[in-house]
Design a protein that fits this description.
The protein is an all-alpha fold. It is built from 15 helices and 2 strands. The radius of gyration is 19 Å and the shape is globular.
Length: 322
């Protein structure tokens, strides 16, 4: 632990958090919204990286954590009358526990079979929620604007949500950092290289994979709670949109799977590209096409992502950007 605190990248993460927190200066709403979406993408990609980059398991249904976290938060606040922080924290723990149960089942599968199973979990959960009337069924749940009053009203609440989401982003980066530099992280990386060999050498692969799957669900579910509280509305089609899972995979591979800085870099660049595409009259409908082309280019020409290219060009960069 002490060694991890002395490494340069520990402090680089702190600087990045401060930049995100200070950049809008409490006034620039447009910049705030752009950075807010970037923070969501960084959270999703950093946590997906635990399974994809460390353990080598492609999770196409990671958005299920985001959506369930949103539903728990909105239900706790809108129906039970809880506050924002208890709602997102309890929802995050609940989703993490459910992920542990799911993981113990589907992580017996590998490769394409696991990837398809994660899509199946997302679709099964969406079907359940669509028919679960306490959560609004197919019409979803609306929140009253009165719930924003404890946070200073709707306008001030948006800033509070922004800073909370930046905090969740920072926790995601630190969680990824400490896991990678721990015995647990070394075990996950060994599983990603060769699971059978890792098991022979004493790595408890089933337990490590289930714990990683559970850990990768906690912070995305909290981010989902904050995201849907901000919109004051949630419905199954938005909460469990597989497009976000696909984008998270593209982002992780774009930046460099298995690294900590890579998914964050990929998320920021992708959000900037996405924002430009959505505001362009010519390319407004080509967002997913560009994502698919990016994924194809990465797989064919840069399997290590941007960080792989940087490491080959400047080998000493590994000591600073992990």
């Amino acid at each position: 632990m002490a060694a991890a605190l002395r490494r340069p990248f520990f402090w680089i993460i702190g600087v990045a958090i401060l930049v995100f927190a200070a950049a809008p200066f409490g006034k620039d709403v447009e910049l705030r919204e752009s950075l807010l979406l970037a923070a969501v993408y960084i959270t999703l990609a950093s946590n997906l990286n635990m399974m994809l980059g460390y353990a080598g398991y492609v999770n196409f249904g990671s958005i299920v954590f985001f959506g369930l976290g949103g539903y728990f938060c909105v239900y706790f606040m809108g129906t039970l009358g809880w506050g924002l922080l208890p709602s997102v924290l309890v929802g995050g723990v609940a989703v993490s526990f459910l992920a542990l149960l799911f993981g113990l089942g589907i992580l017996r599968l590998r490769g394409i079979h696991f990837a398809l199973a994660t899509i199946g979990v997302n679709e099964a959960v969406m079907a359940f929620v669509t028919n679960f009337q306490p959560w609004g069924g197919s019409t979803g749940i609306y929140l009253s604007t009165e719930l924003f009053q404890p946070l200073g009203g709707p306008a001030q609440a948006l800033w509070t949500i922004y800073y909370l989401r930046v905090a969740v982003m920072g926790l995601s980066l630190y969680l990824s950092y400490f896991i990678k530099n721990s015995k647990f992280g070394v075990g996950l990386l060994a599983i990603g290289q060769n699971e059978d060999a890792a098991s022979v050498l004493g790595v408890p692969a089933p337990r490590y994979k289930a714990l990683a799957y559970s850990a990768s669900a906690l912070l995305p579910s909290i981010a989902g709670g904050l995201y849907f509280f901000k919109g004051a509305f949630i419905q199954p089609a938005d909460a469990f949109d597989l497009t976000l899972s696909t984008e998270a995979i593209v982002i992780t591979m774009l930046g460099g799977q298995g690294t900590i800085f890579g998914p964050a870099l990929g998320a920021y660049l992708y959000e900037e590209l996405r924002g430009w595409l959505l505001t362009s009259q010519t390319f407004a409908n080509f967002q997913l096409v560009v994502a698919g082309v990016l994924l194809l280019i990465i797989v064919l020409f840069a399997p290590g992502g941007l960080m792989g290219l940087f490491y080959r060009r400047w080998p000493r960069l590994r000591r600073i950007l992990e």
